[in-house]
Amino acid sequence: MEKIRLGVIFGGKSSEYSVSLHSVSSMLRSVDPEKYEIRCIGISPCGSWYYLTQPDYDKIEHDHWLDDTCVEMCLSMGEKKGIILLDGANTFIGLDVVFPVLHGKNGEDGTLQGYLELAQIPYVGCHVLSSSCVMDKEFTHILCESAHIPCTPYKCIYKNEYKNEKEIYEDAVQSLGDVLFLKPCNAGSSYGISKVRNFEEFKAGMTEAFRHDSKVLIEKNIVGFEIGCAVLGNDELVVGECDEIETHKDFFDFAAKYELDQTEIHCPARISKEQSDIAKEIAKKAYRVMNCEGFARVDMFVCENGEIVLNELNTIPGLTATSRYPSMISHAGYSFSELIDRLIQLAMEKRG
């Protein structure tokens, strides 16, 4: 059987660059070399694209991949699908499908997806509009609330509107409560997020959030805990088991996510079957409303009264063998390598 020419893109001009390196190195070690010819494509933190002629997965994981085995490149915009090496000879290397393993801005926000669409190369995951809308937490709220999906109560503040801090703070407290969460609308891995309990914390938190984006979501603090649900598929959906985040920190921040600092992940979640069924239905509905394809992780809160509300979606969740998404979907019968195979199949079926 002829091997599939698989382009794997990692790195990226994003605050989540290091997260991508860990995800892709684990994913690459699980790709079946009998099925795929791997073409590793790295994007440096400054945004330059490189083809790795001799990829070393350990070097990728520890951020030593950018060396003399890398050749600058670009995608081919002609009839032939692939990449062109900027090696003086314009060497062409064909691709059948691309697996983007990038997180955050310029990776899962529709930017990269648009580039791949222009190059007419099938790719794993959500398309341009879905990726960009899911990345924007305000748009996610607007679209999901319009579909009657219960969401966390919020306000959105644009940077050019942020003038009377005290008035904005007092209005938020009056409508959302004394404890607030501040989130950049377009950022991931909990960058720029803070939990605030007074005006001084609010001012500092807004300053930090605006470092990451030009608009900030002010959300009500949900008394309860966070759960997630893995969804897989294009037309027919497979739903994994729900997981539960138990953290002794103020919230599930970067250290909690990637170092499990004062945090445990329970899969399956310690909730009733009825709550699990409701969460899975919310996850599927949110996936459909946001027009997702391939895969996504849907994050929700279980409130103190047992109600389940949507938090957000993630269109390129962490992809190490021990990450939350692979763990949840394994309960639907997919090993990590089988998950990779299925995602590639879904990409080629949808856009082949």
Descriptors for this entry?
352 residues, alpha+beta, Rossmann fold, D-amino Acid Aminotransferase, Chain A, domain 1, Dna Ligase, domain 1, 3 domains, 7-stranded mixed beta sheet, 5-stranded antiparallel beta sheet, globular
Please outline the helices and strands.
Blueprint lengths: L3 E8 L5 H14 L5 E8 L5 E4 L4 H5 L8 E6 L6 E4 L6 E3 L2 E5 L9 H8 L9 H8 L1 H10 L7 E5 L6 H12 L3 E5 L9 E3 L2 H12 L4 E6 L3 E9 L5 E10 L6 H6 L3 E4 L6 H17 L5 E9 L4 E7 L9 H7 L5 H16 L1
Parallel strand pairs: 1-2, 1-7
Antiparallel strand pairs: 2-3, 3-4, 4-5, 5-6, 8-11, 9-10, 9-11, 12-13, 12-15, 13-14, 15-16
Structural account:
33% of the residues lie in helices and 27% in strands. It is of the alpha+beta class and 352 residues long. It folds into three domains: 4-123, Rossmann fold (3-Layer(aba) Sandwich), CATH 3.40.50; 133-150 and 223-351, D-amino Acid Aminotransferase, Chain A, domain 1 (2-Layer Sandwich), CATH 3.30.470.20; 154-220, ATP-grasp fold, A domain (Dna Ligase, domain 1, 2-Layer Sandwich). The strands form three sheets. Strands 6-5-4-3-2-1-7 form a seven-stranded mixed β-sheet. It has a five-stranded antiparallel β-sheet with strand order 14-13-12-15-16. A hairpin with a 6-residue loop joins β4 and β5. The longest helix is centred in the last third of the chain and has 17 residues, at 273-289.
Strand content: 25-35%
Would you list the SSEs in sequence order as H and E? EHEEHEEEEHHHEHEEHEEEHEHEEHH
Regions with little confidence, pLDDT below 50 for 5+ residues:
252-258
Number of H- or I-type helical stretches: 11
What top-tier CATH class of the largest domain fits best? Answer: Alpha Beta
What is the total tally of β strands?
Answer: 16
Q: Largest sheet, described in full?
A: 7 strands, mixed
What is the CA-based Rg, rounded? 21 Å
Number of domains: 3
Q: Please tell me the overall pLDDT.
A: 92
Report the end-to-end length measured between terminal Cα atoms: 18 Å
Which topology of the largest domain does CATH recognise? D-amino Acid Aminotransferase, Chain A, domain 1
Name of the CATH homologous superfamily of the largest domain? ATP-grasp fold, B domain
The appropriate CATH architecture of the largest domain is: 2-Layer Sandwich
